[in-house]
Specification:
The protein has 311 residues and is α/β, with parallel strands linked by helices. Helix content is 42%, strand content 17%. It has a single domain, classed as Rossmann fold, CATH 3.40.50.720. Helix 1 links the parallel strand 1 and strand 2. The longest helix has 21 residues.
């Protein structure tokens, strides 16, 4: 199939594009700059240069390549190392999930795309009520921390518009928290753990759902190649509380164990949304995706992934 990966030089694109090429697909990557286009070419795909926020350049790129499948993997998180001002960090990504989504859907309809796959997220948006692990049938948070409101609104906008695109076979993939070798950068998660800047807050009961970047790519390929629409969680098999995964991550990278920050102190020191992420978010079940697409992650649990998948 002719597959256009929008955001092909990003973390997901760099894993996804070679996998699609290896499976015999004709792949193009829409990116903003010629330097990113060179990355796409090195991955084995055709570079398309254009700004997804500019409808004219999106239309030109899609008219040139005429994809059968469009894959929306646009984010702008290169400097997302300090999440204290959450919505500000995600402001550009939120534009890509709203205005750029409109542009991509319009261009996809213009050229007859028959499958539209979009990146969403399940790491923190589920409602913080009931059990610790949520399915796609469970509601998203109606009352998120104020600093996350705009970001959740952008996710809801993307999911609604892609989900309504029945003519395009729209599918939303709610990925869990990514991890892989790319985490080992200055200011990244591994750096924070090594410097003991990522504490266990209270009892560390926030439930995180992870997925290794190689499994992100293989799950996305499965979604591209199937004839299924809808919204799906894409995670590994073991949602886990911070109190379990964070000490294990420190151990695997040879760091000292994280500090414990009492909840009462944390409420004074941390913004509400960071406190919630460490103490109260819910995990996500991958059962529906695994069953529907007959997919299995290579790293079925973050325990194995932290041991073998960080280098």
């Amino acid at each position: 199939m002719r597959v256009a990966v929008v955001g092909a030089s990003g973390v997901v694109g760099r894993a996804l594009v070679p996998m699609l090429v290896d499976r015999g697909h004709d792949v193009a990557g829409l990116v903003r700059t010629t330097a990113s286009g060179q990355v796409v070419a090195e991955l084995g795909a055709k570079p398309l240069i254009g700004d997804a926020l500019d409808p004219a350049t999106v239309f030109r790129a899609f008219q040139e390549f005429k994809p059968e499948v469009a894959v929306h993997q646009l984010t702008s998180l290169r400097d997302a190392t300090d999440l204290r001002n959450f919505d500000a960090v995600f402001a550009q990504t939120n534009l890509l999930r709203t205005r750029a989504t409109d542009n991509l859907l319009a261009a996809a309809r213009e050229v007859g795309v028959r499958r539209f796959v979009a990146q969403s997220f399940c790491g923190w948006p589920y409602a913080r009520i009931g059990g610790p692990v949520k399915t796609e049938e469970d509601p998203l948070d109606p009352h998120p921390p104020p600093a996350m409101r705009s970001t959740l609104d952008a996710l809801l906008y993307l999911e609604h518009n892609v989900g309504q695109a029945s003519d395009l076979g729209g599918i939303n993939l709610r990925y869990g928290a990514f991890y892989g070798p790319f985490l080992n950068t200055p200011g990244g998660m591994l750096d924070l753990v090594r410097r003991r800047r990522l504490p266990i807050v209270g009892r560390g009961r926030g439930i995180w759902s992870f997925i290794h970047i190689a499994d992100v790519a293989s799950a996305t390929v499965a979604a591209i190649e199937a004839n299924v629409a809808g919204t799906f969680n894409v995670t590994d098999d073991e949602p886990a509380p911070v109190a379990e995964w964070l000490p294990q991550l420190a151990k695997e990278i040879g760091a000292r164990l994280p500090f414990h920050l009492p909840a009462l102190v944390a409420r004074l020191l941390l913004p509400e949304h960071l406190f919630v992420m460490m103490t109260d978010i819910r995990g996500a079940s991958n059962a529906s995706f695994k069953r529907t697409f007959e997919w299995q992650p290579t790293f079925s649990t973050w325990r194995d992934g932290f041991r073998r998948g960080l280098v």
